[in-house]
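With this grant's support, we have settled on a layout for protein records. One resulting record is reproduced below.
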Amino acid sequence: MGGGDWAEVTARRHAEGDDDLMVINMGPQHPSTHGVLRLVLELRGEQVVSLQPVVGYLHTGIEKSIEFRTWVQGVTFVTRMDYLAPIFNETAYCLAVEKLLGVEAPPRAQALRVLMMELNRISSHLVWLATTGLELGALSIMLYGFREREEILDILEDVTGLRMNHAWVRPAGVSQDLPDGTEDKIRAFVRDMGGKADEYETLLTNNPIWLERTRGIGYLSQDRLVELGVTGPMLRASGLAHDLRKAEPYCGYQQYDFEVPTASGSDAYARYQVRLAEMRESLRIVEQVLDSLPGGPVMSEDPKVGWPARLALGPDGLGNSPAHVNHIMGESMEALIHHFKMVTEGFKVPAGEVYVTVESPRGELGYHVVSDGSNLPYRVHVRDPSFVNLQTGGPMAEGLLVADVIAAMSSVDPVLGGVDR
């Protein structure tokens, strides 16, 4: 008997002898469950008596698979967990590897990581805004949200060669620098995006239907959120300004001027307010990164850890640059041997264990990484914020009408790729 069945068994047993109590399943293929989340609901009429989230339908075995790949190859796995925030997973994993190695990425690589994470944060919040709007009947905001997200995905594709699953952040740096013209493209996006955020507010902030569907829905007190280990916009929407970018800065966040938006309602509407304000703050950070972007390499020049290949975008996509291919194939046998060994065997990481966190669009994303001194990770365990935040589903839903479960669960913004890792 799997965990999903157990949730239904306990719900049906609780309902025995009570003819007015009904057990129903919402999901795992329900359009409002953000992937393959299954909710087992006990209903008395239209009112929710209990809700149990059931996960595991998207299990990918990513954590276990990483143990059989080199440290660099691990990036290609972690980027697939939370598919709306791949840059954050890549960065957190690489920061953990770098901490074990005792190295830091060059200043330009760290600034580029911040730049890409904040663009990724905006695109992730846009997907939340678009899908939540769609689920609550606001079709225009769905179109606008995905329209602006496309612009960000175009930028990510220019920089990394892919729209998702980038594997762009690498231990000791990033795989390649910004292509020519990308800075101008990002600046143009930042200029336009502020006005588009104003449009979202015009559409929703004082919209009586939006207010009716979100205000007071999914309320949890700040103390209860802290008890459950909730982080991210959900926690900040209760008034607690906790953000790892301020509390424990990484990648140079301490040098950028930005606010940590909060709200006081601690309901679905307050979470909307926080995410919208966070998009504006991300735009501020992106502008500051571009204005202060340092020069220099984007990958450590230490040959023992730095990725030897120099990638470039060509007409057939991302690959080794012609100059690098010419160097290893026609100029230096030593360079060819070094390239081959780094790509096939990778590097060894000193034995030890670390826990590294970043502030992802959904909260604290933590990587507990253990090395036994070999060229393969011994263990990589991820604290995914979607998994932790899903615990709020039960207490939030008690007493709600079943139609409001959609708004409440949507305000959690779970991504099941991160939950079922």
